[in-house]
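Reminder to self: tokens first, then the designed residues, so the page reads top to bottom the way the pipeline ran.
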């Protein structure tokens, strides 16, 4: 692909990224401003230690909470641009330090889950397409229906009861060993995989019936060559497209699974921060996770363009 064809989309991505970043900072700032409760009271732990109104006002002035909202936002934005979200109310440590400790667990869970989802998708989606209308196809459809219908939290509890409590095969919580990653990964993968399986099945069936595929078969081209060179490539395009859309489901599922299995990831950290009104952690979570989703969507877009170069060419022609 010619480098010139990337200039227009690259400019759009940069502009969108900058705009999205500022929107996230505004949202995270307003959430704290409009949230019920008082961050100062949380910091002073008024529920266990008696404090005076003068002490509360002194801390407000120290934190600049009595300044106009626009001044508070500018100060907040300056800190964000330097990667400074202040100290966590829960631990007193740097918010970014807390996120840095939690992120590896979330990345491991998300990465392992997507790896399992890919395997399940290609195995079940391929079998369902190959044996269309058979018991295998119906069994895969039943699996997809059940996986989409069962709540992730409930599925996680079922897996814990079966494999940890009854069979004592796998740990019920934590990630002290690799075995601790198995149950949460399976629970999350079962919840996420069904849409991928259905799309791959339908795409493979549609691609296998196209005219150029039938022509290749008529010329004596082997099925393995047809599958690798034509059918699979065309079927991946809609699969990659839904990847960006399903990031919200992956994020939401990760939070649920981390809480269910006691994984010290970003999702569990955010839930605890919400419960304790640890606003610095909440703000950092919104901005960091939001930008991570933006970057992943960008990678999805790049993959989509690589699979279908005509998109880039059309974009260059319109420019």
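Designed residues (319 positions):
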């Amino acid at each position: 692909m010619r480098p010139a064809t990337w200039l227009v989309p690259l400019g759009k991505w940069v502009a969108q990224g900058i705009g999205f970043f500022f929107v996230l900072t505004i949202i995270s700032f307003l959430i704290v401003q409009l949230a019920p409760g008082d961050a100062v009271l949380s910091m002073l732990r008024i529920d266990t230690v008696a404090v005076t109104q003068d002490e509360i006002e002194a801390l407000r002035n120290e934190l600049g909470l009595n300044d106009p909202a626009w001044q508070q936002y500018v100060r907040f934005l300056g800190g964000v641009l330097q990667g400074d979200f202040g100290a966590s109310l829960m631990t007193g440590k740097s918010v970014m330090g807390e996120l840095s400790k939690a992120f590896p667990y979330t990345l491991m869970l998300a990465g392992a889950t997507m790896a399992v989802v890919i395997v399940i998708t290609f195995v079940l989606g391929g079998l369902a397409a190959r044996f269309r209308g058979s018991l295998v196809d119906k069994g895969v459809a039943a699996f997809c229906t059940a996986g989409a219908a069962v709540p992730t939290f409930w599925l996680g509890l079922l897996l814990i009861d079966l494999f940890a409590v009854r069979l004592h095969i796998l740990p019920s919580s934590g990630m002290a060993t690799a075995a601790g990653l198995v149950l949460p990964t399976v629970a999350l993968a079962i919840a996420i995989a069904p849409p991928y399986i259905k799309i791959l099945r339908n795409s493979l069936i549609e691609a296998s019936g196209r005219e150029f595929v039938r022509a290749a078969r008529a010329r004596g081209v082997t099925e393995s060559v047809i599958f690798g060179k034509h059918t699979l490539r065309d079927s991946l395009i809609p699969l990659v497209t839904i990847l960006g859309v399903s990031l919200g489901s992956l994020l939401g599922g990760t939070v649920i699974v981390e809480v269910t299995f006691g994984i010290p990831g970003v999702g569990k950290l955010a839930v605890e921060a919400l419960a304790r009104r640890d606003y610095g952690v909440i703000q950092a979570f919104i901005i960091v996770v939001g930008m991570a989703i933006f970057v992943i969507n960008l990678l999805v877009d790049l993959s989509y363009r690589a699979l279908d170069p005509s998109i880039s060419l059309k974009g260059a022609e319109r420019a």
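The two ends are 16 Å apart (CA to CA).
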